[in-house]
Amino acid sequence: MKKRTLTVLSVLVLIALLVAPAAAQESIDGLIPGQPIEFRQTIPINLVFVGYDPASIDQDALLAQLPPTYKPIVRYPPFYYGLPGRDLGLRYDFRYRVQFAGVEFEDSFFSYLQQNGAPGDPTSVQLDYNNQTHNVLEVTGPVLYVDAPSTERWLLNRAGSLLGIDTRRSYTIFFINWQGRDDFRFHVYTKTDEPDPDTGYNFGELRATRKLIAWGGSHGRTWFYDLSAGPEANSSNWNVDDADVDGDGLADYRLPPIWEYVTGGYRDPTQLSADLGKVTRFVGINLLFTTSPLYDPLVTTPGLAGRKIAHLEMFQDDPAANGLDWIRPNYILNQLSQFQPYYDWRVRLEDNQPIDPGAQRAFRIFTNLLNESDCWNAFGTTFAELFCYFDANRSAYLPADDPVNYVIPVFAFNATDANMGNLFGLLGYADDNWVDGTQSFVFAFDSPTVRDLGYGFSDTIVREVGRHLGLPSPHEGYDSELGLDYGPAGDTYFAWSGDESDTVMQYLALSHRFGQFDQDNLYRWETAGYLNWANGLLDDILFHPDVYSVRQYLFGAASQGVLALHHFWSWQYLESAQHAYQAYVLLATAAQQLGIPTPSAAAQRLAVLPARHTPGQVDLIRFPDN
What we know:
The protein is of the alpha/beta class. The protein has helices at 2-26, 59-64, 76-81, 103-116, 124-130, 148-163, 203-206, 272-289, 329-339, 357-366, 385-392, 394-397, 448-452, 458-469, 516-542, 551-569, 573-594, and strands spanning 39-50, 69-70, 90-100, 118-120, 143-147, 171-176, 187-190, 214-216, 222-226, 308-317, 345-352, 406-415, 426-432, 439-446, 477-479, 484-486, 618-620. The protein is 34% helix and 16% strand. Helix 1 packs parallel to helix 16 and helix 15 (516-542) packs antiparallel against helix 16.
């Protein structure tokens, strides 16, 4: 016993010495044996007003809308099942700074918009606004079409030198108002540099519904929101006549164009400050900057020396078209590998030509073209049919794999329009296991008319795999202070504005990559998760009688923990996740050699149990008529 105690103390001293430099930065140790850590980080939020008269902004009303903290949770288990998700070990404390840009900055910025905007006719959405009964003015041409990512970059590049903002270690929202100046021009923002990877269709260039009033995340930790742009389709702020714009029976809260904040307009001018506070909280903070994962990202952790594999099964249910013409496995692999470069990613594709009878029957039941009882009955909805069929027949479609690999099963259906039944317009979804909210399968759908509208398989699959990894859509999220899980409907309809950001997770099909906000959030989740897993393993390892036999792994893990924390506090989140993962891998290797089980967030395969829900985030075609 005495010898064992000395062994433990020796290793503890070494760990403490190695971790101490990083701990001093935020008074937190990275590797504390057996002790879960809450990584608490201060997040500065800069709110910069460009073109707003300071007298028009009530800072107290604005700040009253904002939360002091945010604690992310795994959203799916509590929302759909009432079960607690794994504690992510993160907490953010916000520090707000309100700033008015000043005349020099404003003159330069609006001159930039004038010089770089391409003149054109008003959009069809702007004309729809003109046709409203209660609009306060008419949008007239020529309208300027301004590139959104370039505008974001202009603001980002000047925020430091002209406004004194540390854009690398903070998040910034630029609230823009051009209206009221002598040089004002009606304008919209565009993103036209990423056509669909399969069809080549350029949504940003060809669709009026993709003209924007906001954008961010392409070049850094900034997002701008311009109520003097548009009106636009995405947030439905062109409609100033109807209370309920989505037909769900609820009045939909929308922020109208800035000129509608007048006496007799759509919104009383005294509400402007609170409205911008709502956008800051329910869009900027909750959906973009510090969001909560849909699923637990650590569920997808491979075993030691294992890979992450997206296994694609193509089901050919259209004899007149080949689904393989509309999918690019190498493109999918590139997107996933760039997003999580610390894993060894693989993408496999198997073709089922034609679709086999079992999968076809399940698909017909799912799309409500075949009215038959099956495994879905236990769940009370045919939407469960694809999950329960492939869950029961998993081995028939997924090849035997090395158990150390984490396999994401992706089932893609190349269908006719008719075979989509009443689910035409559904592009895909990342399903859970219908038992406890753990992620299960990914489904993707395509058909001739859907392709004519511009959609292939690849972008949908990247987005749904992103959901499987934990990323939510940027219009659905969680407010930790209110305990509110919400989407773009009713009082938070304006949450659609979150889609105006650089992420493949949005529904506008303007971006096909995982942007800055996706990266920040996922890397923070994984940094905290892997360091806490490492802490749990370290406790077991240190009290093992053969601990000295794995001391080299302990030394390496401690070093990786120090580096992870250094990068975490420096806002270098990719590097922090990489080092945290390596710290966990080294300790998991040591644990394996000692016969100690390693942690896992994945639920055990459970028998199918009755539950009644449908997935909360399904990927639908937005604005199919435009």
